[in-house]
């Protein structure tokens, strides 16, 4: 007869703690059995009719709903993630057991089962660990003694269909013990699934037979292969998901540092050490009691996050996306602190847990490696021993505390750090200077010695000198700083850095945590310095060889965002930290002042290049006043490139690079008193000449006429390759229609580009932006070039929507159709936008609109800067509103930073003068703020907006 779920706990291989779960608090097993029996007794067919099945289904739906509601309520009260997962698994056990018993007693009544009809229903995989999330798959193994019988097939089918109808996702297999052993031997996935098994109901002897044969015929002697397979699988999974644990929208289950990593860690330990609980690993001395607590804390926290994700969304959602992070933070009880939102505190805790998971993996791997080296028998063992001895025989010149172990630095004694705490920094310097990896034993001992990093060590001149050597290493400083950070040394040695370890910035612009961003920026600088990015950053590569303050540049990159998360401006606070820290690191007064300036002004160059009109002389003069010297300009240029590159994939592009180079070349003469590598006129002449050389197939007269179409700013701010593309496009359009449009995709940058050539018009940009909004497209950048023949070349850069180029091109053609219809008067902007459901950033983001008008930034124009939450149609609404306000847009600079947009317009009134009237300025600010917050607002004054049909492109 069927074994009870309570008894099955005695033969499980899962965690012992599950037996402590009080099932009756969430589901009344006896009551469910009685309810099902009552349905059978009321049925004329004894429970086997279709009507009885319908009643069983309706009854069990209520049971499942009530049980899950109780589990969720208890979870909200105690916030115990692992207990929640175990409660859900226990509820599932009871449900499956009762359905199985009902099927045998009432649907397919059978008083005495033959030996061939014995069956064990076994939970495997995640369910086999005795844990389930609300949306987890239910993985079942129907274990048979021989081939499937008719009765067994009927029971299995009845159970599965009921579970499916109840809304569960069930993975299942019906196999004999022989088949399980055979498949587990050949397939590592099946082997892992059977490794964690749980008898829900059925024949205990059959279950035990599987366990004994699995251990004897599959596990015995295969630890090395299993460990290698699991670690390779883990590496492939990490590579697929970005290969970093510091993504700001992490996958809680599959991501680096997530639950799957913790599971893999325990699978390996369970397989190799034959343990059933993490507690046993501590008893065996594989991990310390502190590390056991880390494991338990990480497991409980990750389960809490995952269960909340499933409960909050009502589905198996594993990605901790921006729109869900605030809700999960609230469910877990996080509060805001000065400088940090509640969601940022929650995510910092998440990333610290993910880091702990990585530490535990390294610790276990070290223990496994050491045991394998000691235990390897026979000829293979001798070969391994010889190889290991060769590797371990190498000494490191100048030290007896460390040696080289298979190209990894290892400690020579367990007391090396206690004997001399400076070794906690020296070990990284030795590894860097000798290009060594770190032995897991070394990293484990470092973590266990962190308490030795105190005020005395932080002020030690030798320790600081060694740290500066690591930071400025000529080979790979990022790698060694990353190891230092993962080991916990960097945050202890520089406490201000420790405050931003694992800190996320709750926005869609920054892809990584603050500490990860800083380390990546140093990595970019190292690549530039070694010439490995010369193709992408030729100017920075050239400049880096001329700088005199290499140490200051590396220190500034390490510190430029170190004050994130504080109530005050992080640049100002970071400069203050720099002035305090740099002397400790050994920098002199001049270097300290330079680092503080770089940190305080590290955003100035990128903001000026992207948000200001760099063809305006006042922009250049103001920027030069901030920079003061050519040496500081060189340093700021390199730092800016590294900073932007380290923000995340796709943030850097050629357009930003060209803007920075143009700003540099425009500023250089001012700083050098007129002496420069090339004057503006020379650069303009050189740019025209380069384009002419690329257009060598054109007739000379045609080529000269084309070059005269563009104003100087076009040649100075547009990359050559783009100029060539524009030329081909405009040439084709010269003899054609007055309106020409071309669509191009760029999968690498994740954008779609639309080029539009049309007669210039005050409302042109508004209509183009409206056409994009009508198709649900979001404009990431816009370049507007007025030509001398009265036409305008507008280049719109759109965020990509589809993975395939063919789909993206079709979307581009649809937008092109909207543009034609708008400009030729066959459609209206208002109808297009109203018919499109806006795709906004996640609701979690809220940025109040801000409008600022400045007459000091330019001598000729009034600068209108609008900042707030990005949305489709925004640029169209703003440019139309400016036309309503009788403003003439001379240049527009569109910058998006994730969910945030900063649109800057250089404008005049219709007479070409600045806006100086205070009342008119207030009117502009009020109306633009209103338009920002109210998409599709009507014109400010009736009759101001001219009909969109006057554009006249359809007239001969």
TrEMBL record:
Uridylyltransferase: annotated span: 1-397
Highest taxon in the source lineage: Bacteria
Needed co-factor(s): Mg(2+)
A Pfam family that the UniProt record links to this protein: GlnD_UR_UTase
Keywords assigned: Hydrolase, Magnesium, Multifunctional enzyme, Nucleotidyltransferase, Repeat, Transferase
Gene Ontology molecular function: [protein-PII] uridylyltransferase activity
E.C. no: 2.7.7.59, 3.1.4.-
Annotated catalysed reactions: [protein-PII]-L-tyrosine + UTP = [protein-PII]-uridylyl-L-tyrosine + diphosphate; [protein-PII]-uridylyl-L-tyrosine + H2O = [protein-PII]-L-tyrosine + UMP + H(+)
Keyword Transferase in record: yes
Family named by the database record: Belongs to the GlnD family.
Cross-referenced PANTHER family: BIFUNCTIONAL URIDYLYLTRANSFERASE/URIDYLYL-REMOVING ENZYME, BIFUNCTIONAL URIDYLYLTRANSFERASE_URIDYLYL-REMOVING ENZYME
Protein name: Bifunctional uridylyltransferase/uridylyl-removing enzyme
Upper taxonomic lineage: Bacteria, Pseudomonadati, Pseudomonadota, Alphaproteobacteria, Hyphomicrobiales
Name of the gene this protein is made from: glnD
